[in-house]
What we know:
Number of helices: 3
Oligomer: single chain
CATH topology: Ferredoxin Thioredoxin Reductase
CATH class: Alpha Beta
Radius of gyration: 13 Å
CATH architecture: Alpha-Beta Complex
Shape: globular
Number of strands: 2
Largest sheet: 2 strands, antiparallel
Helix content: 25-40%
Structural class: mainly alpha
Order of helices and strands: HEHHE
CATH superfamily: Ferredoxin thioredoxin reductase catalytic beta subunit
Amino acid sequence: MTEKSIEDTGRFASMVAAKQGWELNPDADFTDSLVEGLTVNANRYGYYLCPCRDTEGSRQADADVICPCAYSWADVERYGHCYCALYLRKGFTAGGGVPTGIPDKRGSAPG
């Protein structure tokens, strides 16, 4: 397993946001803490486990919460951001949106 750096994870998060038509949370300190958590999890577990989730103990059991998690598309569409608020709908904060707590869908069907 190749050790991931903060820079590797930052590029990963930026790539995901760009590919999905999202943007990263503009709060640099908040985003940096999430990127750091993703990096720690990647180096600990071998995959980018959402830093806001607990592991179920295996990549297979955690597949729904590997970043971007299976719930992120529906959450970004409905709430303007994903569960951990790393990814935001384009224009969300520019339009006055502020990430808030949203229901955790883990354990139920995505969407």
